[in-house]
Amino acid sequence: MKNFLSTFCLLGLFVVSGWSAEHPNIVVIFCDDLGYGDVSCYGGKEIPTPHIDSLATNGLRFTNAHSTSATCTPSRYGLLTGEYPWRRQGTGIAPGNAKAIITPERVTLASVLQKSGYKTAAIGKWHLGLGTAEGVNWNGSIKPGPREIGFDYCFIMPATGDRVPCVYVENDHIVNLDPNDPIEVKYNEKIGNLPTGREHPELLKMHTTHGHDNTIINGIGRIGFMTGGQSALWNDETIAETLTDKAIAFIKENKNVPFFIYFATHDIHAPRVAHPKFAGKSGHGARGDVILQLDDTVGKITDTLKEQGIFDNTLIIFTSDNGPIVDDGYKDGSMENIGNHQPAGHLRGSKYSKFEAGTRVPFIVQWSQQVKAGVSEAAVSQIDLFASLASIVGQTIPEEAAPDSIDSSATLIGKSVVGRDFVIEHGNGLALISRNWKYIPPNEKGSRILAAPKMGNNVPVETGNLPEPQLYDLSVDISEQKNIAPEKPEIVKELNELLESVKKSVKK
């Protein structure tokens, strides 16, 4: 639901203050599985992240920012469409051969910016499906994809690093594909003669803790089966370097026009295979190593913007698709070497959870020409990036688009300290934050913990589900340790009614 009165007031604030949209370049660095406590500027003390910290020192660091979901596909869907993913079927974690979840008729953040004169690029992890219900033509023109929903250019990993096909797609075609070695992908049955991790564990350079034992690519077992495409397979050690180089090239090619880059890094998602430059350097296993690698990526992007003379008028948003996870399927030394590092910081939960660590993520905004350095406690959500960025560039959103996105641009650039009235958290169900209250509805059917993925020191993943309602006062209990629902029945009733009203209402 849009708060039209709030939006009107914010627009008035812009007029009074003299702020105007100048079509800044926009770079959204959308990390994968990076937790609230994984970076130094959010309290991490074990793994240095100087380039990310520099963004925070010179920009606006948000302490109450949320992804639209506690897992990857729905989080990305929400950011690009401005629609809560739980409103639409088929937005769960997508297999590598899923059809396009965002179809060409949909208005997206990219298409709105494109209409406003921006050159647009999607670079990195996609994981929103490709092709139609009839399947993906991996050996020909792959449509629909990012270019059909507003991106002028794309260089993407079709799904995730742990899912086949392990190839890059540039615009509509697989990169370096030999037509004499066509690719075939299936998820419901084995195909081809490539060994699998289940059948030949002796061939693995990284063993699994659960799942990830299908086709072996580069010595790593994946989810799903593929055959062919040997000349097109990526090298895990150079994924970050390859994606960063593509982003840098796009910046240089478009430095004289406004551009928008949706740069979705693979780091720090599993399988975590750092470049030799970073492997073994963190002292905290592969997960720590790829945090170093991610920080280096951020440094390369900001350095390029400065070298091209466009840094000051570039709006950079650094954030994560969901909270952290330590063991997500591979034995990579991260669990054994976590030491004193706390990926979730002082928050409870993790990726997959509706406790705070599931969706409360790092969120930093830097725009030298407009944003003053500081820290904001305002409640913000990635669901609002659609409406907010459209507002910043002066573009009207079509009536049917972005049904859940509200214009929070004044908050994002530090012109207002007023955040959202409420935030919806999505992870194994829904939760709601309003003011300082955190409400989790009762769930008699959902499991309280997930057996397979784990946080550090073998701590299981808590979904946040309990058979009774939960209420936490985040102003004094940010770690969600004391359920005060029995003491505050009137607050429980109020928040439950609010959550139900949001679920039933759609703006357009």
Characterise this structure.
Strand 17 and strand 18 (430-434) form a beta hairpin. The chain is built from 9 helices and 22 strands. The protein has 508 residues and is of the alpha/beta class. The chain has 2 domains: 21-410, Alkaline Phosphatase, subunit A (3-Layer(aba) Sandwich), CATH 3.40.720.10; 424-504, Arylsulfatase, C-terminal domain, CATH 3.30.1120. The strands form 6 sheets. It has a 10-stranded mixed beta sheet with strand order 7-6-5-4-12-1-13-14-2-15, with helices on both faces. It is 21% helix and 17% strand.
Mean pLDDT: 94
The description of the largest β-sheet is: 10 strands, mixed
Q: In total, how many domains does the architecture comprise?
A: 2
Structural class: alpha/beta
Going across the biggest sheet, name each strand in turn. 7-6-5-4-12-1-13-14-2-15
- CATH superfamily of the largest domain, by name, is Alkaline Phosphatase, subunit A
Number of helices: 9
Relevant terms:
22 strands, globular, alpha/beta, Arylsulfatase, C-terminal domain, 2 domains, 9 helices, four-stranded antiparallel β-sheet, disordered N terminus, ten-stranded mixed β-sheet, 508 residues, Alkaline Phosphatase, subunit A
